# Entry
Amino acid sequence: MRLIVGLTGGIGSGKSAASAWFEQQGICVVDADVVAREVVQLGSPVLQQLVASFGDWVLLENGELNRRALREHVFADDQARHTLNQITHPAIRAAIVEQLEQASSPYVMLVSPLLFESQQNELTSRSLLIDASIELQIQRASMRDGQSLEQIQNIIAAQMSREQKQQRADDIVLNDGELEHLYAQLRSLHLKYLALSEQ
# Structure
């Protein structure tokens, strides 16, 4: 049985820094966000379904998906978000499974901000939560993305709470300090996962 570690965390928690570190150790990383962009590329069946469900306004002038418009629409409308998920999740899941199967490292990492919410944790053997306080998440995300405080708070509100994620995760890394502190915690987990992958 292949060891698949699901890596998750809220916006601004440091998921990207953590997944980049694992990649530097030679671990194959499958990123659900990257896959989500790939399945809605120009001309894809998923993009055609989105247009059929929502209308032409979801497209930019060049025919590509207008992510920002769609994101703002679904964050304001639960039914629209449900429709979006029904269209995209099966395609994303199928592509993730394919990429996980092709990975060649001792263990493989599935990075997903919605690991638990989208049931992608069912594809994994263990889950690793990169955790940070809400204040830190907001501070980092506003510095990085140029999103408004309200947008960041909406994203946090739409995701599973920190406490729920903490209860469900097998491993938790608190990323509340310097990157070196984060990497030190990841090093010991990397050794643990290597050992588990040999069982």
